Amino acid sequence: MTIHPIVVYGEPVLHRVADKVTEFDDELRTLVTDMFETLAASNGVGLAAPQIGVGKQIFVYDADDDYAQVRRRGVFINPVLVGSKVPDSRPHPDHDSEGCLSVPGLDFPLNRSAKVTINGVDETGAVVSLTVEGWFARIMQHEYDHLQGTLYVDRLQDKWKRRWKREQKAEGYNVPGISWLPGTDPDPFGHGEDDEGAE
């Protein structure tokens, strides 16, 4: 098992559509195991393969689903997501805030679909499906976006987009080659084990 560095906004793999997985072999299973290890070390709730520099249609998740009052942990490979209409109102800075392990230390409000259904397969090729609501639906959309080459900051409304651009310049998140190693480098979000993590 290996904890991988998480690449930061500006790395080309984050900004292109990931390739579909076609081989369900030991190499894939090892990658998924490593992704779970990296996710745990990062104190996050979701992690997509492009975030560790692997341009494949894979994401893992491990978080409480407060709406359903269960803990969910799993993997989606080659997923397809369908969501309810995204509100066009102004997102609430407290209730609609998102963070991302590939945009370390920052968070911004963003509207998302309140309910989504996501279908795909796991590392064995078995069909997996979830219909979720609320915060967990946000996680699914965030990770699915990563596989389309989109980060949440790419979706921000104008006010927050301007703030992001200022922060991006200040932090230097506009060039390739930046990464951080969970469990070794300081947690950029200052999370403790009981905190809700970034995606």
TrEMBL record:
Cofactor: Fe(2+)
Enzyme Commission number, as recorded: 3.5.1.88
Region span, Disordered: 175-199
Active-site residue list: 143
Keyword terms, alphabetized: Hydrolase, Iron, Metal-binding, Protein biosynthesis
Binding note for cofactor: Binds 1 Fe(2+) ion.
Enzymatic reactions: N-terminal N-formyl-L-methionyl-[peptide] + H2O = N-terminal L-methionyl-[peptide] + formate
Residues annotated as binding Fe cation: 100, 142, 146
Coiled coil residues, start to end: none
Gene Ontology molecular-function annotations: metal ion binding; peptide deformylase activity
GO biological process, one term: translation
Keyword 4Fe-4S annotated: no
Database matches in Pfam families: Pep_deformylase (PF01327)
InterPro entries, sorted: Peptide_deformylase (IPR023635), Peptide_deformylase_sf (IPR036821)
TM spans (from-to): none
Function: Removes the formyl group from the N-terminal Met of newly synthesized proteins. Requires at least a dipeptide for an efficient rate of reaction. N-terminal L-methionine is a prerequisite for activity but the enzyme has broad specificity at other positions.
Family: Belongs to the polypeptide deformylase family.
Protein name per Swiss-Prot or TrEMBL: Peptide deformylase
Species for this entry: Brevibacterium senegalense
Lineage of origin: Bacteria, Bacillati, Actinomycetota, Actinomycetes, Micrococcales
Gene: def
